[in-house]
Amino acid sequence: MLLKIQEKAATYFPEVQAIRHHIHAHPELSFEEHNTSAFISEKLTSWGVKHQRGVAGTGIVALIEGRNPGKRCIALRADMDALPIQELNETDYRSQNAGVMHACGHDVHSSCLLGAAHILHDLRDEFEGTVKLIFQPGEEMHPGGASLMIKEGVLDNPKPEAIFALHVYPNLPSGTLGFRAGQYMASADEIYLTIEGRGGHAALPHQTVDPISIAALVITGLQQVISRKGNPLIPSVLTFGKIQGGFATNVIPDKVELLGTFRTMNEKWRYEAHKWIKDFVHHTCEAYGAKAIIDIPAGYPSLFNDPALTAKAEGWGKAYVGDANVKELDMRMAGEDFSFYTQHMPGCFFRIGTNKDGKEFTAPVHNAHFDIDEDALRTGMGMMAWCAVNALEG
Description:
By secondary structure, this protein is of the alpha/beta class.
């Protein structure tokens, strides 16, 4: 079976490469993936893969049934959305949609899952059980397409016993795989804060309630809250990425708006920190005569890779690409809505290397120059199919 999957991955590589070029050239923002969804549906239809469209808006769920389809179900997931970035690469397949780019590799993920679908459909008489393919919208935008697809029953009828997903990784060369068992990625919550003071002349601060100076206290003080109230053994990050307020050098404004993010690896501390942040902001603003309006909507939970499943997947990866080409990953404070699936079943979120010899395609994700060595497509589609057939065996 291993050789058959590898041979089919090589055979379908040109087709999957063309698929990736099309998706990359026509990126769509979160929950707007209408053309991408239609294109994926056309490919699945052409191969005879039955599927359902319109799940959580633009999502697709496909089923590939092997022999005895009710024996066991395994899920494979890929995201489809792009980012609001103007691409700066000069390639034949560069984005044709101004200000939108597949800078996080979701075009690669969808292409790899389509490649895996083609392989598995060809081999469906050689494995038992059902493979559920999830093409998901909106990974880059709260509340995350994963949570919406789950609410619409994507994990039911049939219910998968485990779920796998891959992600591009420019830190490793193509042909390699990366795994990390246990806690891997952080929760990701957004912070929306408005400090309402009382504006006036900059030369008469005693007649105002200065929201800018209060905002400075809040930003610096919250770093102390996180570092003093949180267990230092639990990774935590609090960052404010936007501060907006004021009009001129000699005017104290009425209000200041701050936008930020809080991330951690511990779900209990996550919600304790929300309370500490809110309490500190309200008390600080009150102490200086201002009013705080703060909202911290629950975002993506932290991502935990099931240790037993990940150990198996790492072993399958070594069989697929060789021991030397399987690496252990470091924890990351970035967020990923695949974590919603892992709250319902064992999951494994792994990486495929995408640079070329450590010299080309090393731009990070979410960068206007991000691109991949496309040999990674062959590794990705094959490994997804290989995980599915092995997991179905139990």
